[in-house]
Structures are given as structure tokens and as C-alpha cells.
Amino acid sequence: MMHEFRRAKRRKASDTILVTDAMTERTIGRIGNLSETGMLLMLDAPLVDDALYQLRFTLRDGGGGQQVDVGAHLLWMDRASAPAQVWAGFRFIAVSEAQSRRLRSWIDAPGSHYE
Asked: In what residue span(s) does the PilZ domain sit (predicted)?
């Protein structure tokens, strides 16, 4: 039996949500799942392990989209089954209260699917 140790529920991204490195303005990947405290990304290329990043993405809702900016720590990376793709786990280290509310609202939206 597998036990879940995460404290925050993780919403699966049913649509493509691209993530940009705010420092380089380069798209680095797409969200697999998202919680208030972190996210799983499918990267197009490996990043620097154990590094800090300023990331930006847009969450779509009924009223359009809202940009979210977060400071994140890259905790781990693992090769995906597709060539040249990498799974990566990030922990948020800097999120404003307004951004946190946007995340919570998107995660808790009706019809969401969770992991």
C-alpha cells in the first residue's frame, strides 16, 4: 500500500500550461500538476539541479487567464519516457499573497482532477 505524504492537494493540468523562466523569458516546459506549495513540470531540457528559479505561467479560468509569478527551488529531476524530456519537481519558496489566492482558486475550481 502506498501512503501519500504531501500536505497540499495537487491538481492535474488538463490543458497545456506553459512555464517560462522569467529571467531568460524562455519557455522551459509545461505543468503536469500544481499545488499551493509546488509543481511537477515536464521540461524540454534539464535545468541546473538544486537551483532557484523565477517562473511564470498563466492559469486559465472562466474569466480568462491570470499570470502567476513564483520563486521556486528545483528539488529533483528524472528522465521521462519520451526522448529529450525530463520530469522535474519544484517547491515554491516565494509566492505573494495575491498569487497564493490565485493558485488556491484554480486548484479548488469545480471539475478539477487531483493526484
From this structure: 6-108
